[in-house]
């Protein structure tokens, strides 16, 4: 845009000088015509200044526009030279201006075209107009020398631009690469992952994300020094690079934590690749690895990282001599649930009771063992949100007011929010949130109806209600199991899921009978 503006003002300056020359030689012929031609040049410059410069400069016809402008100046200058009968007319001297203009601002290819157009046009015009040979030859030589200098400047500027582009590209690369190992740093890996996820969303191909953590890396640093630790990190990247495909990406997120991106690898193939990676590292640097797959485990980067981290922790916990992660989950979940039960003043472990009843229902409905394990965890934690409810409400012996009941109803949302912050428990978050939804839509917090309520939440509601009715509370005595079952059956289809009620009734009345004939959809 600065070049465009400068070119216009250069034209105005040359036109002003031309008008001074015409005024001083007005007695010579064709002065009115030359004055009109000069006025045309000024008007054309004004029109160019009024154009939308940003669109002109950024448009696809930019080079054509500037070359056309240059050629039009050449034509105007040569026409002016033809109209001026003065011997050795100075009106051809402005031919130097498009040469200088092209040399200062045009790309090399466009500058070459502009310079060639000026030289060829002037030589042809001199022959046709019958200009004096000696003058023409000298002036043409001056034009050629100026054109050579302008082309050299254009070439030099283009080399400088290419070098700057190369340096910028190198800086961009360095800003995305870990300087120690040569792997992508966190920024570079996240950008690559984002790009691959966008491509996978369009094409439908899977992606596997693997998180690798070097075992006992701190011991190596402490025992052998940081130099040995750095060498171990570099060796890790070398081994991973030799094992992976060129299209795969390796990142170092920090410390001894690495990530691997495997485009096109789905869950069916990821096990083979993971095994190959662990085998490659086993001889030099034993490591633990967790993985997640797009789109099965998540559709965005944060979810994939969370699932991969959870898988990594499970892999670390399953090592010999380390406690089973499922046992750890149940142990801390039981501790939290016991704290809530104590605040409620319950005389028995309510959360454990709900868990036992929920698993009994799920077993009757032929749920898989893995699902029953998650259901037990959700049942133990289903009241965890009550940690935010004041004791005066939790332990109130009489009926709750409307405001107090609204306070109680918030506990499912609070509990779901607490659980959502725990890595690996994403699946049970909606189960806990909707544990008090009624099949007729009268429950809370979202008023879900029927099949919109998660099956696990429907089980939890029945198990929770049964345990509450069959245990002593501050405001009433416990009811018998049969009375509680009859109460559940009266409200089946409105408050409770009929299949869940039937399953619990079958368990309580005939514990050793066949599974309930009304399976709950999963």
Structure report:
The chain contains 22 helices and 4 strands. The longest helix is centred in the N-terminal third of the chain and has 43 residues, at 133-175. It folds into 3 domains: 2-172, no CATH class; 186-317, 2-Layer Sandwich (Alpha-Beta Plaits); 325-509, Orthogonal Bundle (Hypothetical protein af1432). The two termini are 65 Å apart. The chain has a 4-stranded antiparallel β-sheet, sandwiched between helices. The chain has 522 residues and is mainly α. The chain has helices at residues 2-24, 31-50, 53-58, 62-83, 96-105, 108-129, 133-175, 186-203, 217-224, 226-243, 267-282, 301-317, 325-343, 350-364, 369-380, 391-394, 402-409, 411-420, 429-433, 455-469, 481-490, 498-509; strands at 207-214, 249-254, 257-263, 287-294. The model is unreliable at 320-330 and 511-522 (pLDDT under 50). The chain is elongated, with a radius of gyration of 41 Å. α14 (350-364) runs antiparallel to α15 (369-380). 32% of the residues are buried.
């Amino acid at each position: 845009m600065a070049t465009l503006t400068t070119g216009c003002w250069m034209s105005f300056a040359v036109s002003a000088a031309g008008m001074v020359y015409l005024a001083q030689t007005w007695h010579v012929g064709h002065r009115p015509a030359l004055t009109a031609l000069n006025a045309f040049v000024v008007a054309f410059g004004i029109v160019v200044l009024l154009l939308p410069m940003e669109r002109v400069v950024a448009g696809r016809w930019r080079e054509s526009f500037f070359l056309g402008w240059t050629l039009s100046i050449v034509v105007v200058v040569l026409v002016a030279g033809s109209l001026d009968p003065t011997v050795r007319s100075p009106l051809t001297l402005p031919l130097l201006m498009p040469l200088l203009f092209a040399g200062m601002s045009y790309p090399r290819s466009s500058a070459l075209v502009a310079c060639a157009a000026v030289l060829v046009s002037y030589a042809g015009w001199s022959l046709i107009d019958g200009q004096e040979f000696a003058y023409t030859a000298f002036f043409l030589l001056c034009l050629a020398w100026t054109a050579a200098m302008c082309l050299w400047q254009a070439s030099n500027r283009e080399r400088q631009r290419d070098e700057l582009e190369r340096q910028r590209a190198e800086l961009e690369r360095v800003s995305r690469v870990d300087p120690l190992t040569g792997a992508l740093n966190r920024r570079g890996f996240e950008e690559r992952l984002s790009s691959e996820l966008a491509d996978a969303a369009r094409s439908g191909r899977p992606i596997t994300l693997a998180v690798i953590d070097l075992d006992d890396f701190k011991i190596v640093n402490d025992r052998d020094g940081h130099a040995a630790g750095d060498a171990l990190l570099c060796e890790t990247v070398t081994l991973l690079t030799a094992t992976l495909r060129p299209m795969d990406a390796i990142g170092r997120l920090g410390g001894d934590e690495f990530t691997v991106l495997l485009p096109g690898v789905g869950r069916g193939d990821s096990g083979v690749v993971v095994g190959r990676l662990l085998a490659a590292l086993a001889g030099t640097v034993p490591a633990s690895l967790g993985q997640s797959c797009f789109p099965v485990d998540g559709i965005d980067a944060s979810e994939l990282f969370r699932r991969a981290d959870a898988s990594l922790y499970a892999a670390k916990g399953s090592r010999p001599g380390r406690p089973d992660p499922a046992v750890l989950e149940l142990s801390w979940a039981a501790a939290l649930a016991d704290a809530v039960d104590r605040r409620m003043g319950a005389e028995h472990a309510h959360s454990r009771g709900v868990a036992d009843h929920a698993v009994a229902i799920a077993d009757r409905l032929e749920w898989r063992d893995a699902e029953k394990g998650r259901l037990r965890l959700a049942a133990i934690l289903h009241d965890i949100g009550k940690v935010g409810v004041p004791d005066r409400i939790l332990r109130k012996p009489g009926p709750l007011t409307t405001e107090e009941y609204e306070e109680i109803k918030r506990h499912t949302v609070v509990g779901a929010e607490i659980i959502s912050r725990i890595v690996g428990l994403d699946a049970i978050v909606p189960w806990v949130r909707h544990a008090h939804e009624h099949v007729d839509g009268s429950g809370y917090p979202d008023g879900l109806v029927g099949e919109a309520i998660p099956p696990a939440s429907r089980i939890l509601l029945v198990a929770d209600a049964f345990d509450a009715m069959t245990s002593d509370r501050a405001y009433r005595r416990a009811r018998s199991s049969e009375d509680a079952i009859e109460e559940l059956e009266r409200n089946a289809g409105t408050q409770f899921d009929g299949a869940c009620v039937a399953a619990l009734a079958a368990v309580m009345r005939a514990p050793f009978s066949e599974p309930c004939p009304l399976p709950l959809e999963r």
